[in-house]
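Q: Sequence in, structure out?
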Amino acid sequence: MARAVDATLRITRAWGTPAYSPPEAEAGEVSPAWDWWSLGMVIAELAGGRHPFELPDGTMADPRQIRGLLTRPVDLSALADPRALLLCRGLLTRDRIQRWGADQVTDWLAGAPRGGDRAFRGPGPGPPGAVYRVRAFLAANLAAAFCEHWAEALRALFQERDPTLVEETERLLRHHHLDEASRLLAAPLSAAELPRRFADLLAEMDPQLDPVYNDVRLSPAGLEAAALEVVSAGGDHPTARVLDEVRRFDILTLWRALPDMAHGPTTQRAWAGANQELEKAVASLNQHGYQPSTTDWALARAWLLACALNPAHHSAQLASLVESLGTVDAGRQGWWAALRAQGPSPPTLVLTLLTHPSAVQQAHQQKEQARRERERLERERRREEERAPLIAERDRLRNKSLRSRVALSLEAGLSGG
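A: Exactly. Output:
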């Protein structure tokens, strides 16, 4: 357990075992909230029969892996008891300000958490029939619950317009005089506006909201980790869709006032600018037969995001990958060779990397076409060789016949004379 202190301290060295230490341990912040997190981990391990950070092979995640796991909601799928699940969700809230403490745990033990009977309900991640129940003590708590159960909350609030949930949320917003949040919840909108409207609502409900968009933390470290997940999966990863929403709906700028989001506008501009350059370059390659797939786009945009966040490191990685590409075949394609020679900008590098298979395929197709043409010409030559004696004999007979006719004509002429 962490050392109990009355006020949060920033220190150079933190205590505790990584598997039981909260997210703020990485920054060296120690407070009573640390102990509540550790208690939540112990309860989750006892109630679920395994530690939430235990790997499928039964071993515990190493500290580096744990740091990655702490950027997303803790996996509590092993907990079948709804009340234990409720307790652990409260104690394992990543934001220490919103984390449950003595008052909430006391209420939980009494069977009546403060906040009355209001709750946000939905199908939980546990066994069939399990239900999660997140109490709304404050608007910030409700925002955190919506954020943690992103897809279900968005659907219930804006797509299905669940009357009970909408009414209770509106009542809470009015109680806290959150007029802009009330307007965002009530105003009509199109399906295309849903993700941005929901993100805007959450930020209005809690200006100190943990900036986690559909399980992706939008801090620089969280975004970089998400981008590299997509890169490692070759573009075929669920996080790619979330990152695409973040980019298209300008969420980094929208959430710029939230904690750890000062980088948002700068990162968005760099990412959007690189994406525009990429799209322009892709359009110029259409004439050469390159049509990027959905996973190509996802992979390219993930690389561009990583480069926007850490330009020197990830641009160097891309340049190294491009340098390692074979050029014997691809280099025969003038368009690809020109692309490779353009320069070290991330859009050019990532497009060079993505188009390499197409260039190689085109080179192989051209080789195959050349081989077939050579075989055709060889067959023609052999046929000509086979026909040559026949043609020579035909010409000989034709000449012989002609000479015979000439001779007969001469004889006829002489006889007539």
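Confidence is low (pLDDT under 50) at residues 1-14, 113-136.
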